[in-house]
Amino acid sequence: MLKDLTKIAKDTNSFLKTFIKTQKKTELIVPMSYGLFSGGKKIRSKILKDIGYIFNVDYKTLIIIGSAVECIHAYSLIHDDLPCMDNDDMRRGKPSTHKKFGESTAVLAGNSLLTLAYEILSNKKLKIKDETKLKLIKKISECSGHQGIAGGQFLDLNFEHKKVSKKRIVEMEIKKTGKLFSFCCMAPLIIKDKSAKEISMFENIGSEIGLLFQVADDLIDHKGSASSAGKKTKKDHKKGKATLISLLGYENTIKYSEEIKTKILKKINKYGSRTNEIRKTLNFILNRNK
Q1: What is the DSSP string of 141-158?
Q2: What is the C-alpha to C-alpha distance for residues 249 and 28, in angstroms, rounded to an integer?
Q3: Which of 6, 181, 191, 241 would staple 236 via disulfide (CB 3.0–4.6 Å)?
Q4: How far is Cα 197 from Cα 286, in angstroms, rounded to an integer?
Q5: Angle at 261 between CA 53 and CA 206, to 5 degrees
């Protein structure tokens, strides 16, 4: 598993570095690169590869699409860390982008990474039909804006110090985290021109994987150490964040995460042995410590 993650990270970073080098150099390239090449696990790209393997999608194609996903993920983390958002000074064991370069530069670097994702998906290096590229750009846009990441972050901030139902917490976590996983699960099927029904099923699977990832993140924040997580822990409770742990308790949240995993596995069972990789990734998501 770790070997596979390392290869995906290496190939994704290699593509991104080459792609950035082809662009006109600006002052924002350095803070963009700081936030982008900060040593993330590339779990989203791994999910993309796992689903791509089920449907026999070319690896290089998946790396390019995964590179766009990682740009959007990096943008969201840079903005999440801002003083007006979650106000985090550390990210992946080093100072957050705004601590290193200043708040306004961090905002602009994040914005630039968001738009860089669309440049990647529309670029000639991605050798798929233009019609398919448009479909991918439409879906990743929906997953990143008010219906996805941005909308989820709004709810996350708005729910602080409030009593929130389980349904609303799940909605928030699916938007904030799950929607980008949804895109990763949909993209291979869009490339292969699968039916709307099957694409929708994998969109929902992606939401559940994202929810699983966010619940695992919340569990790490609750019990984990800052040294292993690479960021401050136990901050959700201090900030009055609405999480499933605050609502259900720690032990019940662990049970709930296992229920999510079981639900996902039932949905992918019919694809047989080609799901072995995604199964390993789900276990990794649940058992990680950072």
Answers
A1: HHHHSTTTHHHHHHHHHH
A2: 43
A3: 241
A4: 28
A5: 50
